[in-house]
Design a protein that fits this description.
With 638 residues, the protein is an alpha+beta fold. 42% of the residues lie in helices and 17% in strands. It has two domains: 6-443, Creatine Kinase, Chain A, domain 2, CATH 3.30.590.20; 506-637, CBS-domain. It starts with 5 loop residues before the first strand and ends with a helix.
Amino acid sequence: MGEHNVQRLDNEASLRDFARQLIQDVRAMEHMLAEGMFETDIRRIGAEQELFLVDERGHPAPIVEAVMALNEDPDVVTELTRFNLEFNMTPQVFGGTCLSQIEQTINEKMAYTREVVRKAGGDVAMVGILPTIHISDVVLDNMTRMPRYFALNDAIQRLRGGQAQYQIRGVDELYVKHDSIMLEGCNTSFQTHFQVAPNEFARMYNLAQAVAGPVLAAAVNSPILFGKRLWQETRIALFQQAVDTRSSNLYIREMSPRVNFGTSWVKESVTEIFKEDIARFRVLLTAEGIDDPFAALRKGDIPKLKALMLHNGTVYRWNRACYGVMNGKPHLRIENRILPSGPTPADEVANAAFWFGLVSGLAEAYEDIADVLAFDDAKNNFIAAARLGLNAQLTWLHGKRKPAPQLILEDLLPIAQNGLATAGIDDADIDHYLGLLAARVEHGQTGSEWQLASLAHMSKGTRSDRLDALVKGMVERQEKGHPVHTWPLAELGEAASPRRIRSSRVEHYMSTDLFTVHEDELVELVACLMDWQRIRHVLVEDEHHRLIGLVSHRSVIRYLTEYDSERQSELAVRDIMVRNPISVTPEMKSFDAISLMRKHKIGALPVVRDDHLVGIVTERDFMHIAGQLLDETLREEE
Protein backbone atom coordinates (compact mmCIF):
# COMPACT_ATOMS: atom_id res chain seq x y z
CA MET A 1 0.00 0.00 0.00
CA GLY A 2 2.10 2.85 -1.33
CA GLU A 3 -0.38 5.69 -0.85
CA HIS A 4 0.67 7.92 2.05
CA ASN A 5 -2.23 10.37 2.34
CA VAL A 6 -4.84 7.97 3.59
CA GLN A 7 -7.47 8.16 6.29
CA ARG A 8 -10.03 5.98 8.02
CA LEU A 9 -13.60 5.78 6.80
CA ASP A 10 -15.30 7.41 9.76
CA ASN A 11 -18.86 7.81 8.49
CA GLU A 12 -21.42 6.16 6.24
CA ALA A 13 -21.32 8.95 3.67
CA SER A 14 -17.56 8.56 3.08
CA LEU A 15 -18.02 4.78 2.88
CA ARG A 16 -20.68 5.11 0.19
CA ASP A 17 -18.63 7.68 -1.70
CA PHE A 18 -15.53 5.49 -1.73
CA ALA A 19 -17.58 2.45 -2.79
CA ARG A 20 -18.91 4.50 -5.71
CA GLN A 21 -15.36 5.45 -6.68
CA LEU A 22 -14.29 1.80 -6.52
CA ILE A 23 -17.09 0.77 -8.87
CA GLN A 24 -16.20 3.59 -11.26
CA ASP A 25 -12.57 2.47 -11.32
CA VAL A 26 -13.56 -1.11 -12.16
CA ARG A 27 -15.81 0.11 -14.95
CA ALA A 28 -13.05 2.34 -16.25
CA MET A 29 -10.65 -0.61 -16.31
CA GLU A 30 -13.19 -2.69 -18.21
CA HIS A 31 -13.56 0.15 -20.73
CA MET A 32 -9.79 0.43 -21.15
CA LEU A 33 -9.50 -3.31 -21.66
CA ALA A 34 -12.26 -3.30 -24.26
CA GLU A 35 -10.61 -0.41 -26.10
CA GLY A 36 -7.21 -2.09 -26.16
CA MET A 37 -5.52 0.71 -24.25
CA PHE A 38 -3.10 -1.50 -22.28
CA GLU A 39 0.51 -2.21 -23.19
CA THR A 40 0.71 -5.60 -24.88
CA ASP A 41 3.96 -5.87 -26.83
CA ILE A 42 6.47 -6.22 -24.00
CA ARG A 43 7.12 -8.18 -20.82
CA ARG A 44 8.95 -6.61 -17.95
CA ILE A 45 10.12 -7.89 -14.59
CA GLY A 46 10.88 -6.07 -11.36
CA ALA A 47 11.47 -6.67 -7.66
CA GLU A 48 11.16 -5.17 -4.18
CA GLN A 49 13.58 -6.02 -1.38
CA GLU A 50 12.56 -5.87 2.29
CA LEU A 51 15.12 -5.95 5.11
CA PHE A 52 15.47 -6.05 8.89
CA LEU A 53 17.51 -3.48 10.78
CA VAL A 54 19.45 -5.18 13.59
CA ASP A 55 21.70 -4.07 16.43
CA GLU A 56 25.07 -5.40 17.55
CA ARG A 57 23.46 -8.50 19.08
CA GLY A 58 21.36 -9.25 15.99
CA HIS A 59 18.14 -8.01 17.60
CA PRO A 60 15.62 -5.65 15.94
CA ALA A 61 16.96 -2.09 15.89
CA PRO A 62 14.21 0.58 15.68
CA ILE A 63 16.49 3.15 14.07
CA VAL A 64 14.72 3.82 10.78
CA GLU A 65 14.46 7.57 11.45
CA ALA A 66 18.22 7.83 11.88
CA VAL A 67 18.76 5.73 8.76
CA MET A 68 16.39 7.80 6.63
CA ALA A 69 18.04 11.01 7.85
CA LEU A 70 21.26 9.73 6.26
CA ASN A 71 19.69 8.15 3.19
CA GLU A 72 19.98 9.86 -0.19
CA ASP A 73 18.51 7.10 -2.40
CA PRO A 74 14.81 7.68 -3.24
CA ASP A 75 14.39 3.94 -3.86
CA VAL A 76 15.11 3.20 -0.18
CA VAL A 77 11.88 3.68 1.76
CA THR A 78 10.33 2.86 5.13
CA GLU A 79 8.07 -0.04 5.95
CA LEU A 80 5.51 -0.79 8.69
CA THR A 81 7.99 -0.95 11.57
CA ARG A 82 10.92 1.17 12.66
CA PHE A 83 13.19 -1.87 12.24
CA ASN A 84 12.30 -2.59 8.58
CA LEU A 85 13.43 -1.05 5.29
CA GLU A 86 12.56 -1.63 1.65
CA PHE A 87 14.18 -0.71 -1.62
CA ASN A 88 12.72 -0.98 -5.11
CA MET A 89 14.39 -1.87 -8.39
CA THR A 90 13.77 -0.33 -11.78
CA PRO A 91 11.71 -2.66 -14.03
CA GLN A 92 13.61 -4.39 -16.81
CA VAL A 93 12.63 -5.98 -20.08
CA PHE A 94 12.34 -9.75 -19.64
CA GLY A 95 15.23 -11.04 -21.73
CA GLY A 96 19.00 -11.03 -22.12
CA THR A 97 20.89 -10.53 -18.86
CA CYS A 98 17.95 -9.12 -16.90
CA LEU A 99 18.44 -11.67 -14.08
CA SER A 100 22.10 -10.91 -13.46
CA GLN A 101 21.31 -7.20 -13.75
CA ILE A 102 18.73 -7.57 -10.98
CA GLU A 103 21.27 -9.32 -8.77
CA GLN A 104 23.82 -6.61 -9.49
CA THR A 105 21.27 -3.95 -8.53
CA ILE A 106 20.40 -5.77 -5.29
CA ASN A 107 24.08 -6.10 -4.38
CA GLU A 108 24.73 -2.42 -5.09
CA LYS A 109 21.72 -1.25 -3.11
CA MET A 110 22.50 -3.70 -0.29
CA ALA A 111 26.05 -2.33 -0.06
CA TYR A 112 24.75 1.23 0.03
CA THR A 113 22.00 0.44 2.54
CA ARG A 114 24.38 -1.52 4.77
CA GLU A 115 26.79 1.41 4.81
CA VAL A 116 24.06 3.89 5.72
CA VAL A 117 22.59 1.64 8.41
CA ARG A 118 26.01 1.06 9.96
CA LYS A 119 26.52 4.82 10.18
CA ALA A 120 23.25 4.89 12.15
CA GLY A 121 24.58 2.21 14.53
CA GLY A 122 22.97 -0.91 13.11
CA ASP A 123 23.23 -3.56 10.42
CA VAL A 124 20.91 -5.32 7.96
CA ALA A 125 19.59 -8.89 7.79
CA MET A 126 17.88 -10.63 4.88
CA VAL A 127 15.50 -13.21 6.31
CA GLY A 128 11.76 -13.89 6.15
CA ILE A 129 11.36 -13.68 9.95
CA LEU A 130 14.15 -12.44 12.20
CA PRO A 131 14.83 -15.26 14.71
CA THR A 132 15.69 -12.81 17.51
CA ILE A 133 12.48 -10.80 17.34
CA HIS A 134 10.35 -10.81 20.50
CA ILE A 135 6.80 -9.83 21.31
CA SER A 136 8.04 -6.68 23.04
CA ASP A 137 9.51 -5.51 19.71
CA VAL A 138 6.14 -5.48 17.95
CA VAL A 139 4.52 -2.67 19.92
CA LEU A 140 2.95 0.50 18.55
CA ASP A 141 5.95 2.54 19.71
CA ASN A 142 7.89 0.72 17.00
CA MET A 143 5.41 1.51 14.22
CA THR A 144 6.83 3.85 11.59
CA ARG A 145 5.44 7.34 12.09
CA MET A 146 3.26 7.49 8.98
CA PRO A 147 -0.50 8.10 8.96
CA ARG A 148 -1.24 5.24 6.57
CA TYR A 149 0.08 2.63 9.02
CA PHE A 150 -1.84 3.98 11.99
CA ALA A 151 -4.98 4.36 9.88
CA LEU A 152 -4.69 0.78 8.66
CA ASN A 153 -4.12 -0.50 12.19
CA ASP A 154 -7.15 1.39 13.51
CA ALA A 155 -9.35 0.12 10.70
CA ILE A 156 -8.37 -3.52 11.15
CA GLN A 157 -8.65 -3.37 14.93
CA ARG A 158 -12.12 -1.86 14.60
CA LEU A 159 -13.27 -4.73 12.41
CA ARG A 160 -11.67 -7.32 14.68
CA GLY A 161 -13.42 -5.95 17.72
CA GLY A 162 -10.62 -7.02 20.07
CA GLN A 163 -7.26 -8.70 20.31
CA ALA A 164 -6.11 -11.00 17.54
CA GLN A 165 -5.25 -14.58 18.40
CA TYR A 166 -2.26 -16.24 16.75
CA GLN A 167 -1.84 -19.99 16.81
CA ILE A 168 0.78 -21.80 14.72
CA ARG A 169 1.88 -25.40 15.22
CA GLY A 170 5.17 -26.80 14.02
CA VAL A 171 7.87 -28.62 15.97
CA ASP A 172 6.88 -26.19 18.72
CA GLU A 173 3.58 -24.39 19.17
CA LEU A 174 2.91 -20.65 19.32
CA TYR A 175 -0.20 -19.25 20.94
CA VAL A 176 -0.29 -15.53 21.59
CA LYS A 177 -2.73 -12.63 21.62
CA HIS A 178 -1.84 -9.20 20.30
CA ASP A 179 -3.63 -5.90 19.97
CA SER A 180 -2.27 -4.42 16.74
CA ILE A 181 -1.15 -5.33 13.22
CA MET A 182 2.49 -4.99 14.27
CA LEU A 183 3.10 -8.74 14.01
CA GLU A 184 2.99 -8.14 10.26
CA GLY A 185 6.32 -6.40 10.81
CA CYS A 186 7.89 -9.74 11.72
CA ASN A 187 7.79 -10.58 7.99
CA THR A 188 10.04 -9.42 5.19
CA SER A 189 9.87 -10.64 1.61
CA PHE A 190 11.46 -10.45 -1.82
CA GLN A 191 8.57 -9.51 -4.07
CA THR A 192 8.84 -10.10 -7.81
CA HIS A 193 6.72 -8.51 -10.54
CA PHE A 194 5.87 -9.95 -13.95
CA GLN A 195 4.20 -7.67 -16.49
CA VAL A 196 1.87 -9.54 -18.87
CA ALA A 197 -0.60 -8.56 -21.57
CA PRO A 198 -4.32 -8.27 -20.65
CA ASN A 199 -5.40 -11.03 -23.05
CA GLU A 200 -3.02 -13.51 -21.39
CA PHE A 201 -3.43 -12.30 -17.82
CA ALA A 202 -5.89 -14.97 -16.64
CA ARG A 203 -3.76 -17.79 -18.05
CA MET A 204 -0.50 -16.42 -16.69
CA TYR A 205 -1.98 -15.61 -13.30
CA ASN A 206 -3.30 -19.16 -12.99
CA LEU A 207 0.16 -20.49 -13.83
CA ALA A 208 1.65 -18.31 -11.10
CA GLN A 209 -0.84 -19.88 -8.70
CA ALA A 210 -0.05 -23.38 -9.94
CA VAL A 211 3.71 -23.10 -9.32
CA ALA A 212 3.50 -21.27 -5.99
CA GLY A 213 3.88 -24.44 -3.93
CA PRO A 214 6.96 -25.94 -5.63
CA VAL A 215 8.70 -22.55 -5.85
CA LEU A 216 8.09 -21.85 -2.15
CA ALA A 217 9.29 -25.34 -1.14
CA ALA A 218 12.74 -24.51 -2.51
CA ALA A 219 12.80 -20.95 -1.15
CA VAL A 220 11.72 -21.25 2.52
CA ASN A 221 13.63 -19.00 4.94
CA SER A 222 11.34 -18.30 7.94
CA PRO A 223 11.22 -21.24 10.39
CA ILE A 224 11.52 -19.43 13.74
CA LEU A 225 9.23 -16.93 15.46
CA PHE A 226 9.67 -15.78 19.07
CA GLY A 227 12.22 -18.54 19.55
CA LYS A 228 9.80 -21.28 18.47
CA ARG A 229 10.35 -23.65 15.54
CA LEU A 230 7.14 -23.48 13.53
CA TRP A 231 6.54 -23.77 9.77
CA GLN A 232 9.40 -23.85 7.28
CA GLU A 233 7.89 -20.62 5.95
CA THR A 234 6.12 -19.27 9.02
CA ARG A 235 5.50 -15.97 7.20
CA ILE A 236 2.58 -17.59 5.40
CA ALA A 237 0.68 -18.43 8.59
CA LEU A 238 1.73 -15.32 10.49
CA PHE A 239 0.90 -12.75 7.83
CA GLN A 240 -2.53 -14.25 7.27
CA GLN A 241 -3.36 -13.89 10.95
CA ALA A 242 -1.68 -10.49 11.38
CA VAL A 243 -4.20 -8.64 9.20
CA ASP A 244 -7.16 -10.99 9.61
CA THR A 245 -10.43 -9.18 10.33
CA ARG A 246 -12.68 -12.21 10.67
CA SER A 247 -14.56 -13.04 13.82
CA SER A 248 -13.99 -16.43 15.43
CA ASN A 249 -17.69 -16.79 16.23
CA LEU A 250 -19.07 -17.46 12.77
CA TYR A 251 -19.36 -21.25 13.08
CA ILE A 252 -19.00 -22.83 9.61
CA ARG A 253 -19.56 -19.73 7.50
CA GLU A 254 -17.00 -19.48 4.72
CA MET A 255 -14.99 -16.25 4.84
CA SER A 256 -11.64 -15.51 3.26
CA PRO A 257 -8.88 -13.81 5.24
CA ARG A 258 -7.49 -10.60 3.77
CA VAL A 259 -4.25 -12.49 3.19
CA ASN A 260 -5.24 -15.38 0.96
CA PHE A 261 -4.32 -17.65 -1.92
CA GLY A 262 -7.62 -17.22 -3.72
CA THR A 263 -10.71 -19.37 -4.13
CA SER A 264 -10.60 -20.56 -7.76
CA TRP A 265 -8.89 -20.22 -11.10
CA VAL A 266 -9.36 -16.93 -12.93
CA LYS A 267 -11.52 -17.58 -15.99
CA GLU A 268 -11.21 -14.63 -18.35
CA SER A 269 -10.07 -11.28 -17.00
CA VAL A 270 -8.07 -9.51 -14.32
CA THR A 271 -11.24 -7.69 -13.29
CA GLU A 272 -12.55 -10.94 -11.80
CA ILE A 273 -9.93 -10.59 -9.06
CA PHE A 274 -10.71 -6.96 -8.32
CA LYS A 275 -14.46 -7.59 -8.29
CA GLU A 276 -14.11 -10.56 -5.93
CA ASP A 277 -11.94 -8.58 -3.53
CA ILE A 278 -14.42 -5.70 -3.48
CA ALA A 279 -17.25 -8.15 -2.90
CA ARG A 280 -15.50 -10.06 -0.11
CA PHE A 281 -13.57 -7.44 1.84
CA ARG A 282 -14.78 -4.35 3.62
CA VAL A 283 -13.25 -1.06 2.60
CA LEU A 284 -10.70 0.03 5.24
CA LEU A 285 -9.31 3.36 4.06
CA THR A 286 -9.91 6.28 1.76
CA ALA A 287 -7.67 9.03 0.43
CA GLU A 288 -7.88 12.58 -0.78
CA GLY A 289 -7.69 13.55 -4.43
CA ILE A 290 -9.38 10.52 -5.96
CA ASP A 291 -10.31 11.58 -9.48
CA ASP A 292 -13.14 10.48 -11.75
CA PRO A 293 -11.47 7.98 -14.11
CA PHE A 294 -13.90 8.66 -16.95
CA ALA A 295 -13.18 12.38 -16.74
CA ALA A 296 -9.50 11.56 -17.21
CA LEU A 297 -10.31 9.32 -20.18
CA ARG A 298 -12.42 12.02 -21.82
CA LYS A 299 -9.43 14.37 -21.60
CA GLY A 300 -7.19 11.77 -23.21
CA ASP A 301 -5.36 11.02 -19.95
CA ILE A 302 -4.67 7.64 -18.36
CA PRO A 303 -6.55 7.33 -15.05
CA LYS A 304 -4.62 6.32 -11.94
CA LEU A 305 -7.54 4.22 -10.61
CA LYS A 306 -6.50 5.44 -7.18
CA ALA A 307 -9.50 4.07 -5.27
CA LEU A 308 -9.10 0.60 -6.77
CA MET A 309 -5.37 0.50 -6.08
CA LEU A 310 -5.86 1.72 -2.51
CA HIS A 311 -8.34 -1.06 -1.80
CA ASN A 312 -6.12 -3.56 -3.62
CA GLY A 313 -3.31 -2.54 -1.27
CA THR A 314 -5.35 -3.70 1.74
CA VAL A 315 -6.08 -7.17 0.32
CA TYR A 316 -2.97 -9.32 0.37
CA ARG A 317 -3.26 -12.13 -2.15
CA TRP A 318 -0.05 -14.14 -2.31
CA ASN A 319 -0.13 -13.58 -6.07
CA ARG A 320 -1.62 -10.12 -6.45
CA ALA A 321 -2.95 -8.41 -9.57
CA CYS A 322 -1.49 -4.92 -10.03
CA TYR A 323 -2.31 -2.01 -12.33
CA GLY A 324 0.27 0.60 -13.21
CA VAL A 325 1.19 3.30 -15.69
CA MET A 326 4.65 3.53 -17.23
CA ASN A 327 5.72 5.95 -19.94
CA GLY A 328 2.11 7.06 -20.30
CA LYS A 329 0.86 3.53 -21.00
CA PRO A 330 -1.22 1.40 -18.58
CA HIS A 331 -0.12 -2.16 -17.88
CA LEU A 332 -0.95 -5.21 -15.75
CA ARG A 333 1.44 -7.10 -13.49
CA ILE A 334 1.42 -10.23 -11.38
CA GLU A 335 3.05 -9.48 -8.03
CA ASN A 336 4.54 -12.57 -6.40
CA ARG A 337 4.48 -12.08 -2.62
CA ILE A 338 5.29 -15.65 -1.58
CA LEU A 339 9.10 -15.43 -1.55
CA PRO A 340 10.90 -14.57 1.72
CA SER A 341 13.77 -12.15 1.95
CA GLY A 342 17.21 -13.78 1.67
CA PRO A 343 19.28 -15.73 2.37
CA THR A 344 21.44 -13.89 -0.23
CA PRO A 345 20.81 -11.84 -3.37
CA ALA A 346 22.02 -14.77 -5.48
CA ASP A 347 19.52 -17.09 -3.78
CA GLU A 348 16.71 -14.58 -4.24
CA VAL A 349 17.36 -14.18 -7.95
CA ALA A 350 17.59 -17.96 -8.29
CA ASN A 351 14.11 -18.21 -6.73
CA ALA A 352 12.84 -15.49 -9.05
CA ALA A 353 14.40 -17.16 -12.11
CA PHE A 354 12.69 -20.43 -11.19
CA TRP A 355 9.34 -18.65 -10.87
CA PHE A 356 9.66 -16.58 -14.06
CA GLY A 357 10.87 -19.65 -15.95
CA LEU A 358 8.12 -21.93 -14.71
CA VAL A 359 5.33 -19.49 -15.54
CA SER A 360 6.81 -18.86 -18.99
CA GLY A 361 7.58 -22.51 -19.69
CA LEU A 362 4.16 -23.78 -18.66
CA ALA A 363 2.56 -21.06 -20.79
CA GLU A 364 4.33 -22.60 -23.78
CA ALA A 365 3.11 -26.09 -22.92
CA TYR A 366 -0.46 -25.59 -21.69
CA GLU A 367 -3.25 -23.39 -22.94
CA ASP A 368 -5.18 -23.79 -19.68
CA ILE A 369 -3.52 -25.20 -16.57
CA ALA A 370 -6.98 -25.89 -15.14
CA ASP A 371 -7.27 -28.79 -17.61
CA VAL A 372 -4.44 -30.68 -15.91
CA LEU A 373 -4.31 -29.37 -12.31
CA ALA A 374 -7.11 -28.86 -9.82
CA PHE A 375 -7.14 -25.50 -8.04
CA ASP A 376 -7.45 -27.21 -4.65
CA ASP A 377 -4.29 -29.18 -5.40
CA ALA A 378 -2.41 -25.95 -6.19
CA LYS A 379 -3.64 -24.40 -2.95
CA ASN A 380 -2.82 -27.51 -0.91
CA ASN A 381 0.67 -27.57 -2.44
CA PHE A 382 1.20 -23.99 -1.30
CA ILE A 383 0.23 -24.75 2.30
CA ALA A 384 2.21 -28.01 2.35
CA ALA A 385 5.31 -26.21 1.07
CA ALA A 386 4.92 -23.47 3.69
CA ARG A 387 4.64 -26.05 6.44
CA LEU A 388 7.30 -28.52 5.34
CA GLY A 389 9.52 -26.94 2.68
CA LEU A 390 11.42 -29.58 0.73
CA ASN A 391 9.92 -32.26 2.97
CA ALA A 392 6.48 -31.68 1.40
CA GLN A 393 4.67 -34.13 -0.85
CA LEU A 394 3.17 -32.18 -3.75
CA THR A 395 0.41 -33.03 -6.21
CA TRP A 396 1.28 -32.10 -9.77
CA LEU A 397 -0.29 -32.47 -13.20
CA HIS A 398 -2.95 -35.17 -13.64
CA GLY A 399 -2.98 -35.82 -9.89
CA LYS A 400 0.52 -37.31 -9.64
CA ARG A 401 2.11 -36.93 -6.19
CA LYS A 402 5.84 -36.58 -5.71
CA PRO A 403 8.27 -35.44 -3.01
CA ALA A 404 9.12 -31.79 -3.59
CA PRO A 405 12.83 -32.38 -4.43
CA GLN A 406 11.99 -35.03 -7.01
CA LEU A 407 9.29 -32.89 -8.61
CA ILE A 408 11.58 -29.85 -8.78
CA LEU A 409 14.67 -31.62 -10.11
CA GLU A 410 13.02 -34.03 -12.54
CA ASP A 411 9.95 -32.18 -13.79
CA LEU A 412 10.07 -28.46 -13.09
CA LEU A 413 13.64 -27.31 -13.65
CA PRO A 414 13.57 -28.45 -17.33
CA ILE A 415 10.31 -26.53 -17.81
CA ALA A 416 11.82 -23.43 -16.19
CA GLN A 417 14.94 -23.72 -18.31
CA ASN A 418 12.87 -23.92 -21.49
CA GLY A 419 10.70 -20.99 -20.39
CA LEU A 420 13.72 -18.75 -19.77
CA ALA A 421 15.40 -19.81 -23.00
CA THR A 422 12.24 -19.13 -25.03
CA ALA A 423 12.08 -15.65 -23.48
CA GLY A 424 15.61 -14.96 -24.70
CA ILE A 425 17.32 -15.01 -21.30
CA ASP A 426 21.09 -15.25 -21.53
CA ASP A 427 22.30 -18.87 -21.42
CA ALA A 428 24.88 -18.12 -18.75
CA ASP A 429 22.21 -16.57 -16.52
CA ILE A 430 19.93 -19.57 -16.99
CA ASP A 431 22.67 -22.05 -16.12
CA HIS A 432 23.88 -20.01 -13.15
CA TYR A 433 20.61 -19.27 -11.38
CA LEU A 434 18.80 -22.53 -12.06
CA GLY A 435 22.04 -24.29 -11.16
CA LEU A 436 22.05 -22.53 -7.78
CA LEU A 437 18.49 -23.62 -7.12
CA ALA A 438 19.21 -27.19 -8.19
CA ALA A 439 22.25 -27.36 -5.89
CA ARG A 440 20.18 -26.05 -2.98
CA VAL A 441 17.52 -28.71 -3.54
CA GLU A 442 20.10 -31.48 -4.01
CA HIS A 443 21.90 -30.50 -0.79
CA GLY A 444 18.59 -30.06 1.05
CA GLN A 445 19.88 -26.85 2.64
CA THR A 446 17.35 -24.07 2.25
CA GLY A 447 17.57 -21.01 4.46
CA SER A 448 15.12 -22.61 6.87
CA GLU A 449 17.04 -25.88 7.05
CA TRP A 450 20.27 -23.99 7.72
CA GLN A 451 18.64 -22.10 10.60
CA LEU A 452 17.12 -25.21 12.17
CA ALA A 453 20.27 -27.30 11.74
CA SER A 454 22.37 -24.49 13.24
CA LEU A 455 20.12 -24.29 16.31
CA ALA A 456 20.39 -28.04 16.82
CA HIS A 457 24.16 -27.84 16.34
CA MET A 458 24.40 -25.23 19.12
CA SER A 459 22.31 -27.29 21.56
CA LYS A 460 24.59 -26.60 24.55
CA GLY A 461 24.00 -22.85 24.50
CA THR A 462 21.14 -20.91 26.03
CA ARG A 463 18.21 -20.09 23.77
CA SER A 464 19.22 -16.43 23.70
CA ASP A 465 22.85 -17.12 22.79
CA ARG A 466 21.84 -19.61 20.09
CA LEU A 467 19.46 -17.15 18.45
CA ASP A 468 21.99 -14.32 18.70
CA ALA A 469 24.67 -16.48 17.10
CA LEU A 470 22.24 -17.58 14.41
CA VAL A 471 21.50 -14.02 13.29
CA LYS A 472 25.08 -12.81 13.63
CA GLY A 473 26.28 -15.77 11.58
CA MET A 474 23.56 -15.14 9.02
CA VAL A 475 24.50 -11.46 8.60
CA GLU A 476 28.18 -12.31 8.18
CA ARG A 477 27.48 -14.99 5.55
CA GLN A 478 25.08 -12.73 3.68
CA GLU A 479 27.71 -10.02 3.34
CA LYS A 480 30.13 -12.55 1.85
CA GLY A 481 27.43 -13.44 -0.69
CA HIS A 482 27.95 -17.20 -0.97
CA PRO A 483 24.67 -19.07 -1.68
CA VAL A 484 22.98 -20.70 1.29
CA HIS A 485 23.59 -24.31 0.27
CA THR A 486 27.33 -23.68 0.84
CA TRP A 487 26.98 -22.10 4.29
CA PRO A 488 28.63 -23.83 7.27
CA LEU A 489 26.40 -24.06 10.33
CA ALA A 490 26.39 -21.20 12.80
CA GLU A 491 28.56 -21.54 15.92
CA LEU A 492 27.95 -20.24 19.44
CA GLY A 493 31.16 -18.24 19.20
CA GLU A 494 29.50 -16.00 16.61
CA ALA A 495 27.20 -14.48 19.26
CA ALA A 496 27.71 -10.83 20.05
CA SER A 497 30.21 -9.51 22.55
CA PRO A 498 28.89 -9.36 26.14
CA ARG A 499 29.43 -5.59 26.06
CA ARG A 500 25.77 -5.34 24.94
CA ILE A 501 24.47 -7.63 27.66
CA ARG A 502 23.03 -4.74 29.68
CA SER A 503 20.46 -4.16 26.93
CA SER A 504 19.11 -7.73 27.06
CA ARG A 505 15.65 -8.38 28.46
CA VAL A 506 14.09 -11.06 30.64
CA GLU A 507 12.32 -12.58 27.62
CA HIS A 508 15.71 -13.43 26.13
CA TYR A 509 16.50 -15.79 29.02
CA MET A 510 13.22 -16.90 30.55
CA SER A 511 11.98 -20.47 30.33
CA THR A 512 8.52 -20.85 28.81
CA ASP A 513 8.27 -24.61 29.32
CA LEU A 514 6.59 -24.44 32.71
CA PHE A 515 5.55 -27.04 35.25
CA THR A 516 2.75 -25.57 37.35
CA VAL A 517 0.20 -26.72 39.93
CA HIS A 518 -3.06 -25.41 41.35
CA GLU A 519 -3.29 -24.30 44.95
CA ASP A 520 -5.55 -27.17 46.00
CA GLU A 521 -3.21 -29.94 44.82
CA LEU A 522 -0.98 -32.15 46.97
CA VAL A 523 2.29 -30.77 48.23
CA GLU A 524 3.73 -34.20 47.55
CA LEU A 525 3.03 -33.60 43.84
CA VAL A 526 5.23 -30.50 44.01
CA ALA A 527 8.01 -32.52 45.61
CA CYS A 528 7.73 -35.11 42.86
CA LEU A 529 7.81 -32.46 40.12
CA MET A 530 10.98 -30.98 41.57
CA ASP A 531 12.58 -34.40 41.76
CA TRP A 532 11.45 -35.64 38.33
CA GLN A 533 12.15 -32.45 36.40
CA ARG A 534 15.18 -31.33 38.45
CA ILE A 535 13.75 -27.90 39.15
CA ARG A 536 13.86 -25.81 42.34
CA HIS A 537 10.72 -23.71 41.90
CA VAL A 538 7.14 -24.61 40.97
CA LEU A 539 4.64 -21.91 40.06
CA VAL A 540 1.05 -21.92 41.22
CA GLU A 541 -1.61 -20.65 38.80
CA ASP A 542 -5.39 -20.56 38.63
CA GLU A 543 -7.62 -21.98 35.90
CA HIS A 544 -7.13 -18.79 33.84
CA HIS A 545 -3.31 -19.12 33.94
CA ARG A 546 -2.93 -16.22 36.35
CA LEU A 547 -0.06 -16.40 38.82
CA ILE A 548 -1.16 -16.78 42.44
CA GLY A 549 1.84 -18.31 44.17
CA LEU A 550 5.26 -19.96 44.13
CA VAL A 551 6.67 -22.99 45.94
CA SER A 552 10.45 -23.15 46.42
CA HIS A 553 12.53 -26.21 47.19
CA ARG A 554 13.15 -24.73 50.65
CA SER A 555 9.42 -24.69 51.36
CA VAL A 556 9.20 -28.34 50.37
CA ILE A 557 12.16 -29.30 52.59
CA ARG A 558 10.55 -27.45 55.49
CA TYR A 559 7.29 -29.29 54.79
CA LEU A 560 9.05 -32.64 54.83
CA THR A 561 10.95 -31.94 58.06
CA GLU A 562 8.29 -30.12 60.11
CA TYR A 563 5.22 -32.29 59.49
CA ASP A 564 4.69 -35.97 60.17
CA SER A 565 3.24 -38.22 57.46
CA GLU A 566 -0.34 -37.90 58.77
CA ARG A 567 -0.20 -34.08 58.72
CA GLN A 568 1.54 -34.04 55.32
CA SER A 569 -1.40 -35.83 53.70
CA GLU A 570 -3.71 -33.02 54.85
CA LEU A 571 -1.68 -30.13 53.46
CA ALA A 572 -2.39 -28.52 50.09
CA VAL A 573 -0.11 -26.34 48.00
CA ARG A 574 -1.85 -23.22 49.30
CA ASP A 575 -0.57 -24.06 52.80
CA ILE A 576 3.10 -23.71 51.93
CA MET A 577 3.24 -21.49 48.86
CA VAL A 578 4.39 -17.88 48.81
CA ARG A 579 1.34 -15.84 47.81
CA ASN A 580 1.63 -13.06 45.26
CA PRO A 581 5.34 -13.58 44.68
CA ILE A 582 7.48 -10.87 43.16
CA SER A 583 7.15 -11.08 39.39
CA VAL A 584 8.52 -9.26 36.35
CA THR A 585 7.47 -8.59 32.78
CA PRO A 586 9.22 -10.03 29.73
CA GLU A 587 10.34 -6.51 28.79
CA MET A 588 12.31 -5.89 32.00
CA LYS A 589 16.06 -5.51 31.47
CA SER A 590 18.00 -8.59 32.54
CA PHE A 591 20.31 -6.46 34.64
CA ASP A 592 17.33 -5.05 36.58
CA ALA A 593 15.92 -8.54 37.12
CA ILE A 594 19.22 -9.75 38.54
CA SER A 595 19.32 -6.73 40.85
CA LEU A 596 15.78 -7.47 41.99
CA MET A 597 16.65 -11.06 42.82
CA ARG A 598 19.70 -9.96 44.82
CA LYS A 599 17.78 -7.26 46.67
CA HIS A 600 15.03 -9.64 47.81
CA LYS A 601 17.33 -12.67 48.13
CA ILE A 602 15.15 -14.86 45.93
CA GLY A 603 16.16 -17.51 43.44
CA ALA A 604 13.38 -17.18 40.86
CA LEU A 605 11.13 -14.60 39.24
CA PRO A 606 7.83 -15.55 37.60
CA VAL A 607 7.27 -13.67 34.32
CA VAL A 608 3.81 -12.22 33.74
CA ARG A 609 2.35 -10.52 30.67
CA ASP A 610 -1.18 -9.08 30.55
CA ASP A 611 -1.92 -10.73 33.94
CA HIS A 612 -1.04 -14.17 32.58
CA LEU A 613 1.89 -16.38 33.53
CA VAL A 614 4.24 -16.75 30.55
CA GLY A 615 7.58 -17.87 31.98
CA ILE A 616 10.11 -18.01 34.77
CA VAL A 617 13.72 -16.90 35.20
CA THR A 618 15.91 -18.38 37.89
CA GLU A 619 19.35 -17.74 39.30
CA ARG A 620 20.57 -20.63 37.17
CA ASP A 621 19.33 -18.91 34.00
CA PHE A 622 21.27 -15.80 34.93
CA MET A 623 24.41 -17.55 36.17
CA HIS A 624 26.35 -17.18 32.93
CA ILE A 625 25.02 -13.68 32.24
CA ALA A 626 26.21 -12.60 35.70
CA GLY A 627 29.67 -13.82 34.77
CA GLN A 628 29.55 -11.85 31.53
CA LEU A 629 28.43 -8.73 33.39
CA LEU A 630 31.30 -9.16 35.86
CA ASP A 631 33.79 -9.48 33.00
CA GLU A 632 32.33 -6.39 31.38
CA THR A 633 32.55 -4.39 34.61
CA LEU A 634 36.15 -5.42 35.17
CA ARG A 635 37.08 -4.37 31.63
CA GLU A 636 35.42 -0.98 32.13
CA GLU A 637 37.40 -0.44 35.34
CA GLU A 638 40.75 -1.26 33.73
